[in-house]
Design brief:
212 residues, mainly beta, Neuraminidase, 20 strands, globular, Kelch-typ_b-propeller, Kelch_1
Length: 212
């Protein structure tokens, strides 16, 4: 990278990689960044992007709807509840206020656990082990239910929450095992028949299955 850093947000789109935010430790203390970069595999080099709206560390990144999203994190004043995304067609960042209004990043917590499946953004809330999906039109989150992994054990650290094709992948200490052994779970949407005035319809729900 052009700017060495840690605790930054990252995402990929095809063979391109994006990084933003993060921090460095210098003689005078921590330095937080609003800098962003894009890796171009053709030139094998990092290209600078416009600076973000906020400096932030411990933030999460994802790529959705053709845009690079940076979510949550912390700045010099504390936890950030806003997110922002980089629109390459406009070559600018746009702020999303109150994106994490109910779940700011605490000082001891991991970055937000987020993943994108089929252009839908999901979050695993570390304090409650709840799976949520982001409702883009209203800038709110809908709870989908608990996951069978103890993300709350270490404030989100030590848990992997990623997309795998059309499924979510969660790796961590199992909440259904007496030994809290490490386990791998996949989550996918299922369709449950339900009655309605016009006949039968379907209701999307989520289900977890042990992979290992």
């Amino acid at each position: 990278m052009r700017t060495p850093r840690c605790l930054f947000a990252s995402a990929t789109c095809g063979s391109y990689a994006y990084v933003a935010g993060g921090m460095a430790v210098e003689l005078n203390g921590e330095v937080l960044y609003d800098k962003a970069e894009k890796y171009n595999p053709e030139s094998r080099s990092w290209e600078p992007l416009p600076t973000m709206k906020r400096r932030r560390k411990l933030c999460a990144g994802c790529y959705m709807d053709g845009k690079f999203y940076v979510i949550g994190g912390r700045d010099e004043a504390g936890g950030l509840t806003c997110g922002e995304f980089f629109d390459e067609t406009k070559n600018q960042w746009e702020l999303i206020p109150d994106m994490l209004i109910d779940d700011p990043v605490q000082s001891s917590h991991s970055p937000p656990l987020v993943a994108v499946v089929n252009n839908e953004l999901y979050s695993l809330e570390a304090s409650s082990n709840q799976l949520k999906v982001y409702l883009k039109k209203t800038n709110t989150w809908k709870q989908l239910g608990p996951v069978p992994v103890r993300a709350d054990c270490n404030n989100g650290w030590g848990v992997a929450f990623k997309s795998l094709g059309n499924e979510l992948l969660v790796i961590g200490a199992s909440s259904v095992s007496s030994t809290n052994a490490m386990a791998i779970y996949t989550c996918c949407r299922i369709l449950i028949p339900m009655s309605c005035s016009g006949g039968l319809s379907t209701l999307p729900e989520t289900a977890f299955a042990t992979s290992f």
